[in-house]
Amino acid sequence: MVISIDHGNKQIKTVHKVFVSGLVESDVRPAVGENYILYNSRYYSLTEHRLPYRRDKSKDESFFLLTLFGVAYELLVTDTYDPGHTASVDLLIGLPPAHYGALYHDFEAYFNRGVVKFTLGSRPFSVYFNSVTAYPQAYAAAMTVFSQLRPLSKCVVLDIGGFTADYMLLKYGVPDLSDCSSLEYGVILLYNRIINAVNSAYDLLLEEFDVDSVLAGHNSTLPDNVQKLIREQARLFVEELFGQLRERMIDLRVTTPVFVGGGAILLRPYLEQAGRWATCLFVDDIQANAKGYEKIYRARLASKGHA
Question: Which end of the chain is more exposed for a tag (fewer CB within 10 A), N or C?
Fold first, then answer.
């Protein structure tokens, strides 16, 4: 069984499921629902409040536990769950391009624990991670639209996530590893700016959910002046992000930008407003990295089979 998981600082994405990267631990079973894990005699439930940013996600158990939720959901949704057998899983994961070389070995090793037993609600699970392979984010997402990128002489994939904005230059679909990096310029920074600005100007305490609602164009009960401030902060954030890229000699006006990631989906109107490029491409699939890991994995298997 191949299972792809994109471990975002804001959200966990599998091929079929998206949930917030947040956990609550307890020594007693939750009183409501079945959406909790029992692992090593402790109970863990998902929460809408994300964990603090972690550059190295292998330093504690949090992302391992979130992975167990993701694995369980994938086994259930693909109808491969069998309570009487241990599921052998080839786990596909990813890291920001700039962090990949330094962190991939430890992140892959983080999941090598033999047979892992846990329950999701009343369902028992037994999982063995047969292999764990990490891929660069951004490039993986781009592979979901590879047929559109391959004819382009040059494009820049910009993956706007929770804490980082990862970019990678591709020439005719081939990554140029000398032109890839990660900026600590994800939407979590934008949330913090907006929450502080609104608190300072109007003495209101917002949550990230409130900001998401306004930026996504959903109905909001916030006053008009607060919503205007939120949108203005988003506009400034996008302009600053483009400025950060230009300082690194990435000018989106002279190449084709390819926007991926949950942050790009959320900020699409502001990206389009600020852009001065001839053409661009938006990958409106928040699960694109997870799907891309699987595309790369299967392509490499196929190439080995023909070797």
Answer: C
pLDDT digits (tens, 9 = 90+) for 22-31: 999 999 998 8
Q: Per-residue pLDDT tens for 48-77?
A: 999 998 889 999 999 999 999 999 999 999
Beta strands in the chain (DSSP E): 2-7, 11-14, 18-20, 23-26, 36-39, 42-46, 87-95, 115-120, 123-136, 155-160, 165-171, 174-183, 256-260, 281-282
Integer Cα distance of 2 and 15 in angstroms: 11
Per-residue pLDDT tens over the stretch 108-160: 999 999 999 999 999 999 999 999 999 998 889 999 999 999 999 999 999 99
Give the span between the Cα atoms of 111 and 129, in whole angstroms. Answer: 7
Prediction pTM value: 0.91
State the distance between the two ends of the chain, measured CA to CA, in whole angstroms: 23
Strand-pair category, 174-183 with 165-171: antiparallel
CB atoms within 10 A of CB 248: 11
Residue 32 and residue 97: Cα distance in Å, rounded? Answer: 40
